[in-house]
Design brief:
Rossmann fold; single chain; globular; alpha/beta; 3 domains; Immunoglobulin-like; binds calcium ion
Length: 647
């Protein structure tokens, strides 16, 4: 964002700053983090200040659409597009993203969007549609989506507008921030007229003003708020002392103190809401930006949100529409206006509704604090995890083993299913051209983009035990983790206590016979060579339903992990070639490593960066997207310095 000074109303009548940003990114051949995940395109920025209203102008340039022919369809690509419209059954079309940030308290007055002359291209084949996604629950695979004839038989333009925007409030570099994410659709499609309509540039003008509402804390007394039951306090003391030496000022507040109103008067309709109001008070009065919840669901309540997950004519499955736990509730404190975001906007006592018995609550989603949970059930677990965190931060720096990344992956959806699916849904398309081994595809893209790491690929497609890819066996996973690694990524399918994936063509879960389980984690003896574990797969973080795999890694006494990221809920992935990377868990896997490479090396900040990027970069949020956002949990200390501190 362009910073300007506007104190005492002595504002220059006209201030113009022009910036030129050129980001000529290569796309399509050699997919890079930058081209896949970043707002991009050539831009010009201008800032004008007049009276109390500030006008921010930005001109963005779009590439001409490129058509890639398949037998039956065209794919529409655009150089520099940050994302694609991926609505199920509807045409896949490029999206450009432009993100603006302002201090929270800013009021957006209006947004105008002036685009260049509309040009047309006649096309002889239809634009390819998104045939669906897969659920990464290992117990069942859901395929959804057919060509949406309400779009394909119509002469109306898809999408309906040239642009849309999303606004929310989150945290950026410890400051409460308004994110305004503007999504341009420079190519629109009329199927009945066989015509693409496109624009070459657009000038965006955002008019905004500062308000006198400040979100700067009254004091900067503490950095980290630790919320725990009172009997955990003594076990957490060593963590507070350790953090103090580093310069992170921590405060333990017990849930009893919150409910009793010891520090701030207790507000809220139930215990979870009281905790959330307390976090808000701690942010505003103490300057807290990190929050660590210590305790399982019986000790620190879990907020359940209500999303009709599979709301479609094709499938309504009660198992996936039950309320699902989310700790993002505690982190998303403010909406874009700076008001408390209760997650129950319609005040019916049911939180985070989305098409839930026809109701929906307006939820902001952007996290306003860096939050993690250690779902400990007793003091012993607290002591074990605290000791691991302290040893990790003291001993990991400059260790060679940290520079290893282990990627466990396979063909998340074996070809057996895909051939059938593609034959059914996309007649005329050569399946070999468009399907990939999802997990390994994502793993390879991460490996290509990551610098400074030695990547150990454990892939289900491998038979031979040499080369840079080794077979995905329990023995190899154990061996590599015990050799030491900074990160371990599992990408595939999951359930509460296990993760797994498939060999191409073989529907048997790998590693054999039942996937990688909690029992396998307990057998690890990697001691202080503790990785950060990222598990992409349904439910591996379902801490509300038992000892989930992600928590097993962290609470393990003889090794395991120092922190883990996993889904409390269901997760999905696309299966069309590079589109795997543009949404859902494929996007999130990539974004973890992109954010880390960009310097987000504190666990809670890494998670917030991933979630914020997801929200900024996805114009269309479906119930599936909400699962990705709300389901992603950090099991660990949000202030954890990844890679440790220099001694
Ligand atoms: Ca509600
Ligand atoms: Ca928020």
């Amino acid at each position: 964002m362009v910073k300007i000074r506007s104190k005492n109303k002595k504002i220059p009548s006209l201030l113009i700053i022009v910036l030129l940003i050129c980001s000529g990114v290569s796309f399509f051949i050699g997919l890079k983090f930058e081209s896949i995940l970043s707002p991009s395109g050539k831009e010009e920025k201008t800032l004008e200040v007049h009276e109390n209203i500030i006008s921010l102008k930005r001109k963005i340039y779009f590439s001409q659409p490129q058509l890639v022919k398949h037998k039956g369809y065209f794919e529409v690509k655009a150089k520099g597009a940050a994302s694609y419209l991926m609505d199920i059954g509807k045409p896949i079309l490029p999206v450009y993203i432009t993100v603006f940030t302002f201090p929270l308290g800013t009021k957006i007055v209006n947004i105008t969007y002036n685009h260049s002359k509309v040009k047309t291209i006649k096309i002889s084949k239809e634009v390819i549609f998104n045939p669906g996604f897969m659920l990464t629950d290992m117990r069942k695979t859901v395929i959804k989506g057919r060509k949406d004839n309400s779009v394909y038989n119509s002469d109306k333009l898809y999408p309906q507008k040239w642009w849309e925007y999303r606004i929310g409030s989150g945290i950026l570099n410890h400051n409460q921030t308004v994110f305004l994410s503007l999504h341009s659709y420079p190519v629109r499609y009329s199927p009945a007229k066989n015509t693409l309509y496109y624009i070459e540039n657009a000038e965006i003008t955002i008019r905004y003003k500062r308000t006198n509402i400040s979100f700067i804390p009254k004091t900067r007394e503490y950095d980290l708020l630790i919320i725990a039951p009172s009997n955990f306090s003594s076990s957490l003391k060593p963590l507070v002392d350790h953090k103090k030496k580093i310069g992170i000022r921590s405060k333990i507040v017990t849930v009893e103190e919150i409910y009793n109103g010891t520090y701030f008067s207790a507000k809220g309709r139930d215990r979870a809401e009281k905790i959330k109001y307390f976090i808000k008070d701690a942010v505003e009065n103490w300057g807290v930006s990190y929050v660590l919840l210590v305790g399982d669901k019986d000790k620190i309540p879990v907020r359940y949100r209500h999303i009709m997950f599979m709301w479609s004519p094709y499938l309504i499955d009660p198992k996936v529409t039950k309320p699902i736990a989310t700790d993002l509730y505690y982190a998303d404190i403010y909406d874009a206006n700076g008001s408390f975001c209760s997650w129950d906007a319609n005040h019916n006592g049911i939180y985070g509704e989305y098409n839930w018995e026809w109701n929906s609550d307006k939820v902001d989603f952007y996290p306003n604090v860096y939050l993690g949970r250690l779902p400990c059930k007793d003091k012993k677990e607290v002591s074990t995890v605290v000791a691991k965190i302290i040893r990790y931060e003291r001993n990991t720096y400059n260790k060679r083993w940290f520079n290893n990344l282990i990627i466990c992956a396979g063909d998340s959806f074996p070809l057996r299913n895909l051939r059938l699916l593609i034959a059914l849904l996309l007649p005329g398309i050569n399946w070999k051209d468009i399907t990939v081994r999802e997990g390994e595809y994502v793993g390879d893209r991460i490996a290509e983009n990551l610098t400074g790491f030695h990547v150990k690929k454990l892939y289900a497609s491998q038979y031979l035990p040499w080369g840079d890819r080794k077979p995905l066996t329990k023995r190899n996973i154990k061996k590599e983790i015990e050799n030491g690694a900074g990160f371990v990524l599992f990408t595939g399918h999951g359930s509460i206590d296990r993760w797994g994936t498939y060999k191409p063509l073989f529907p048997l879960l790998r590693p054999l016979l039942h996937g990688y389980t909690s029992k396998d984690v307990l057998s690890l003896r990697n001691k202080d060579k503790l990785p950060i574990v990222i598990i992409d797969g349904c439910l591996c973080g379902a801490f509300d339903q038992g000892d989930c795999l992600a928590w097993e890694f962290v609470r393990s006494e003889n090794g395991g992990a120092v922190a883990s990221f996993a889904y409390v809920t269901y997760s999905v992935i696309h299966f069309l070639r590079d589109y795997v990377l543009y949404d859902f868990s494929g996007y999130i896997d990539m974004q973890f490593f992109k954010s880390y490479m960009e310097g987000k090396d504190v666990a809670g900040e890494l998670l917030v960066d991933v979630l914020t990027a997801y929200l900024n970069n996805h114009p269309y949020l479906s119930s599936k997207s909400y699962n990705e956002i709300e389901g992603l949990e950090l099991f660990g200390d949000p202030t954890l310095k990844i890679g440790g501190y220099p001694c």
